[in-house]
Amino acid sequence: xxxxxxxxxxxxxxxxxxxxxxxxxxxxxxxxxxxxxxxxxxxxxxxxxxxxxxxxxxxxxxxxxxxxxxxxxxxxxxxxxxxxxxxxxxxxxxxxxxxxxxxxxxxxxxxxxxxxxxxxxxxxxxxxxxxxxxxxxxxxxxxxxxxxxxxxxxxxxxxxxxxxxxxxxxxxxxxxxxxxxxxxxxxxxxxxxxxxxxxxxxxxxxxxxxxxxxxxxxxxxxxxxxxxxxxxxxxxxxxxxxxxxxxxxxxxxxxxxxxxxxxxxxxxxxxxxxxxxxxxxxxxxxxxxxxxxxxxxxxxxxxxxxxxxxxxxxxxxxxxxxxxxxxxxxxxxxxxxxxxxxxxxxxxxxxxxxxxxxxxxxxxxxxxxxxxxxxxxxxxxxxxxxxxxxxxxxxxxxxxxxxxxxxxxxxxxxxxxxx
Length: 419
Prior knowledge:
The protein is an alpha/beta fold and 419 residues long. The protein folds into three domains: 4-82, no CATH class; 91-223, Beta Polymerase, domain 2, CATH 3.30.460; 331-417, no CATH class. The protein is 56% helix and 7% strand. The protein has 20 helices and seven strands. The protein has helices at residues 4-7, 15-24, 29-36, 41-53, 57-64, 75-108, 118-125, 146-155, 203-209, 225-238, 245-257, 264-274, 277-291, 297-303, 310-321, 331-334, 342-353, 357-363, 376-396, 400-417, and strands at residues 114-116, 137-140, 159-160, 178-180, 184-189, 211-215, 218-222. Strands 3-4-5-2-1-7-6 form a seven-stranded mixed sheet, with helices on one face. Strand 4 and strand 5 form a beta hairpin. The longest helix has 34 residues, at 75-108.
């Protein structure tokens, strides 16, 4: 019997999404040109609309703007893409400048730092800071260096989004963001995922495998290519596979850039050790199917989990492409309609409505030792009802559409968490 990857066919997306994917797929440029040269002005308007929706305008410019190409983009489109890239460049240059002042101070204090995700991708993978928009810069430091790193950030003129406290680092994986209004945001991480994700991330191994590089003209460290790829995949899962095509394109670009040097045996082994084999497979599979990312067929076959089927792929694909018109309900509240034991349903409800006080303080921008934080449980309940009240009411009334949504969500959650 053929495996699921061989039998599942590419689902038909909307015509404008298909046009955008035609522009983005990693393939021979001559083949791409032959397909795109017949696009009309209306086609390009649809492409531009979807690129904005998926925050892909700068990357679209990079995918289309190749010296020597005969692709005649409409003037309005070429200028819009160019202006967006100029804006991205200005923003990223500010981030580069700030990180180039912080990294030497961390090094002088004996604090090694690893550049995560965005800046790694922009400088090393895309090799063009105009192509990869960044909201902030993430730095990974060791937990014992958190307080010293926080002090260096404040001395460098950054203001923490919340008062700095270090008593409960286990409740999250980074300090409150450090901001310079209108200039830069830098996050100091001690982990790459929230502890609540339940994955067994080998932080010691990440540090041992980190590679020395030059970023913004400053010597620092980045994750190894294998760890970068795994981080991008589990980060995608952290956001419930709803990060969109921009982040999937990052994964495809990393696969292309590091092609031929990736140790796929280690990727498979570490995915298993982290407890993330299913998540890594799903993301790499869709990067290959949607963007023609160079993920070896043998590797995908080795990673493919038991029970993977067309329904699971359809659900994940819909999230990535943002094509689902179904209601959104808090993942923990969806479990109220699952086959879980009553005790676990009650636990899910309590976790949602009454999270730890430290979590609530972060959510509502309060000091961790605030005396009024417990009053915010009433605010939390009001906000949940405001955001999900209608969907919860429909769920309790056994609305067919909502029932179908909750059934699919619970099926996917059960499959992802099964051994």
